[in-house]
histidine kinase (Massilia soli), 540 residues
Amino acid sequence: MPKIEKSKILVVNDDAASLLALTSLLDQWAEESNYEVLGARSGQDALRQVLLHDFAVILLDVNMPGMDGFETAEAIHQRARSADIPIIFVTAFLADEIDRLKAYQRGAADFMFTPVIPQILRAKVQVFVTLATKNEELRQQANKLSQRTTELTATNKRLTREIEERQAAERKSHAKDEFLAMLGHELRNPLSAISSAASLIGMAGAGADTVVRARTIIQRQSQHLSRIVDDLLDLSRAMSGKILLSRQATDVSALVGACLDTFRATGRTGNYSLNVDLAPGWVDGDPTRLEQIASNLIDNALKYTPAGGTIDINIAEDGDFVVLTVTDSGVGIAPELLPHVFDVFVQGAITIDRAQGGLGIGLALVRRLVELHGGSVSARSDGASAGSTFEIRLPRAVPVQAAPDQSDTGVAAGKASVLLIEDNDDGREMMATMLDAYGYAVRYAADGVEGVEMAFANAPDVALVDIGLPGIDGYEVARRLRKDPATRSVKLIALTGYGLEEDQRRVLEAGFDLHLVKPVGIEQLLAAIGSCEVQTASAK
């Protein structure tokens, strides 16, 4: 504990001799009793001393010119800091009862009469000095306790925060472990089916029907693997804000209707009662990403609604928003899960997700994509077995009038000549075979240098160029073809496994017309080549 300062005693007396006598008498015991004595010759001087120091007791002469003892006492006790200082009035005559009452009303603690008896003076002063010392000790102890309480409170808050952060990290780590376990499960299933089908095709004596079924299985499971990879990549891009939206005026009702047609064609909706009400609703968005949002919501409803259940899909305008609502009569959402249903990894840790299959990242991806479009997503459910409702709100845009029929514009019916530059042997062979089956004349090269030479020798209409090529990469291929007047007008389509905004920017800066992310489906590839054919025909 810090050292206790000496208590202070103030003696106030206008008579110099009396003041000296009292202060000298008190000084005799000052060292022993651990106090110091100060003097004042008037009430005003006493008030100045009180402003500078805290006193254990004040010995105040009653009869002083100007401001007497009673007035001085009253002034001292009017200040909050000095209001509790005990005052002993010192008087040379025997005070009557009226004077005593007046003194106590002014805050007097006691009376002493001159001549002062030393033993009585020492005893009375010692009581107040001891009391002041104890009060100071208690004050310091209280300050120390307050400081310690503040430190303990801060430490407790820090420990509580660290515990919460550790628990959150453990939950997140556990959720990631569950997610990785599910990812392994989801990848092994199609890989196992593909491996078995491939082995079946290679078996001697395998019938034609068996081979056809095996090929169908390989195609279906390959598409499933592609969707898994796409979801993972899209979620990563969306979370880092690196998805580049290709915005255009889009009718959400037409887009959702096309999604439903796909689900119906694959037999996914056959065991359900669908109630569909799709009013026109135009938004400024990326059709591919909007279709991804709708597909994930519909797929989620189908996945978690038992056969025979009901699914309602509605689109309506609400003020400045287009609202897509998907309601199902399925398993519902538990109250503790509902606030976290759009969080990454959270669904992956739920048992029912593992039972139903899938990675459980669809809703997290939906939220990211909706937010990129400036919209919002919400979920409602009354609990387990009570079904659920998901609502997407997107900013409304001005409707676009249908474009005039272009069927008689005179676009050439001939197929474009295609140059394929791809270093992966299997990928190159399969893509060339598919394009050949659709009537395209395809030449191909296995590296960048060979591809450039082939283009210079006979310029194609369209060049499909892999980015990661040996020798010179796809970016350099594009730069060289754009630099030469003979190949400057060739339509260049980049094929790459990288789909971030930065990758697309580099592709376009290098001179490419389009950017396709592997794996590229035949429909997507044909559409890309077709758009290049239309542009070439229009230029002619």
About this structure: The longest strand covers residues 310-318.
